[in-house]
Amino acid sequence: MIDLTAPADASNPLWPWFLTLLAIGITAWLIYDFVLAPIWKRRHILESIPYCPSLLLPTLPIERDKTILVPSHKMIQLSYRVNLMQLTCSCFRFRRIRRFYPPNDIRRLCRHLRKELLSSGCAQQFDELTRGVIASRLVDGCYVRENLSNSEMILGFHPRSSIVRVYTYRKSQLDPPGGPYTGQVDKFTYNHRQDLWIYGEPPPNSDEIIGVIDTIMTACRARYPHPEKLPQSRGETLATPIPETEAATAARMRRERILSAGKSTTPLQRP
Ligand SMILES: [Zn+2]
Fold first, then answer.
1. 20 in a domain, yes or no?
2. Does some domain include residue 9?
3. Which of 19, 36, 98, 206 could be bridged to 94 by S-S, CB 3.0 to 4.6 A?
4. Rounded to the nearest whole angstrom, what is the distance from the C-alpha of residue 243 to the centroid of ligand 1?
5. How many angstroms separate the alpha carbon of residue 117 from the centre of ligand 1?
């Protein structure tokens, strides 16, 4: 046993072996951390694209193609280099994971990119639902934008998780019970396995939203490459298509105006 607190004794026959093992250990760690882990992470992210849909952000104007220093929230003396147009950051999490997502993918947004998009006013160039997602932490692997009969929503989820985050409009006081809803965009959390809204009240149109969640989760899980790792089914049912009402037509026209203004997120195309 080598006593590490004792002065180094170069004559100890175990000392060269200790130094050799230490060098091998450090080299192996460096190879793993800087070579193997990024390769595996990149491959995992690219493989996930067919079963993990996502959203693309509209590209910001060319004036935003510059480096901005964003202070760390943990260490005041530390800053990260952020580029809002390229959606890049020099923080560890971006370099390790988020940089492997395609250009403009909403999953590229680390804490610093989100903070700078919101504080600089750039996020005002996106639609309300997209801003609602950016204001929250982007912790989900999949994002889907869906039209509802009288509203619209963005879902954040992963095929292997039962937790689904729903970003949609709240009902304001003057809104009719059946919508369209014009309140602020908020995040609602649904446990798909337990069929339960958690952390607060359900969103308006919750019955319809649950049906859409069932459809989307069923489709995503059907494409998942490791079905043995999926959670056990709770007997998911497919959503019933809902006929479009007059109010729904008004909501659809509003959405089309947003889309034509180029402010909306668009689905990430599968390779
Ligand atoms: Zn960052």
1. no
2. no
3. 98
4. 44
5. 12
